[in-house]
Amino acid sequence: MDVISLECPAKINLSLDVIGKREDGYHDLKMIMQSVCLFDKVTLKKSLSGINISCNNQKVPVDQENICYKTAQLMFERFELKSGLDIIIDKRIPIAAGLAGGSTDAAGVIEGINLLYELRLDLKEMMEIGLKVGADVPFCLHKGTALAEGVGERITKLDPVKAWCVLAKPSDISVSTKDVFGAFRNDEVQKRPNTEMMIEYIKNEDLENLSESMVNVLETVTIREYPKLLNIKNIMIEFKALGCIMSGSGPTVFGLFRNKEKAEVCYHRLKDYLEEAYLVETFISEE
């Protein structure tokens, strides 16, 4: 095998809580993460030498700063792989959006190199490699519905959440995760997610209570900086979303719906308002 293509799904956070700050400067987190059916496509081709990146989005770096480059370089060095690699990214997930677009591409590179070079790594081994390049990469390898703890490396599989999602990202807002966490203050948080209760709602397939329980504590930073996101949340609630919050550090806001028809009405309303709006289903992991 000399070439492989993989579809790499975006993620949303059904909840995000910051437990505290670690000595290494990172934050301990507790989050329920969910893959959705919005995909980048990553194609890997063996080449004679070097790691070469190309992408259909000019805002994505194609040099050594690209997370896919860093991932491939790490694996080539670790496993002493010969030859080179061309990485072609068909970018469909908005960038700097809180949807793990870069992390899911990196996960695709790990999966792809594992298959191309017949490394026979299991999921745990791939997730350990993923953590070295990004905190969301382990979940992006796991996919589906999961509880993520620590910096994101401790993943516990949860029952699947079946829902329709409307995603909305203002094209004039891009957010730096590092800056959001730098500005975050735990003492400013007035409401936190009850993660254990949400897991019970997931087990019981209680989408209504799950949706109403969604909380992302990073909204205290990003929505304060960009009030436009609150307007989007209000539109989603007006158009019958069961619940809506910001994903990750933002600025993407998503709403959950039980049926496609109501989700479509909300999607078309937001599409009149925003260029980057998406109607997707949750992604159910095959594992």
CATH class of the largest domain: Alpha Beta
Tally of distinct domains: 2
**Mean pLDDT rating:** 95
Q: Order of SSEs, N→C?
A: EEEHEHHHEEEHHHHHEEHE
What is the straight-line distance between the termini? 24 Å
Low-pLDDT runs: none
Task: Tell me what you see in this structure.
This protein has 287 residues and is α+β, with helices and mostly antiparallel strands. It has two domains: 3-157, Ribosomal Protein S5, domain 2; 164-281, Alpha-Beta Plaits, CATH 3.30.70.890. It contains ten helices and ten strands. Strands 1, 2, 3, 4, 5 and 6 form a six-stranded mixed beta sheet that branches. Helix 1 (67-78) packs parallel to helix 2 and helix 2 (101-116) packs across helix 3. It starts with a strand and ends in a 6-residue tail after the last strand.
Short description:
The protein has helices spanning 67-78, 101-116, 123-131, 137-142, 177-183, 195-203, 207-212, 219-225, 228-238, 260-271, and strands at 3-21, 27-47, 51-55, 84-90, 145-150, 154-157, 164-169, 243-246, 253-257, 276-281.
Give a quick set of tags describing it:
10 strands, 29% strand, Alpha-Beta Plaits, 6-stranded mixed β-sheet, 33% helix, alpha+beta, Ribosomal Protein S5, domain 2, 4-stranded antiparallel β-sheet, 2 domains, 287 residues
Furnish the topology, listing elements before pairings.
Blueprint: E1 3-21, E2 27-47, E3 51-55, H1 67-78, E4 84-90, H2 101-116, H3 123-131, H4 137-142, E5 145-150, E6 154-157, E7 164-169, H5 177-183, H6 195-203, H7 207-212, H8 219-225, H9 228-238, E8 243-246, E9 253-257, H10 260-271, E10 276-281
Parallel strand pairs: 3-4
Antiparallel strand pairs: 1-2, 2-4, 2-5, 5-6, 7-9, 7-10, 8-9
Helix pairs in contact: 1-2, 2-3
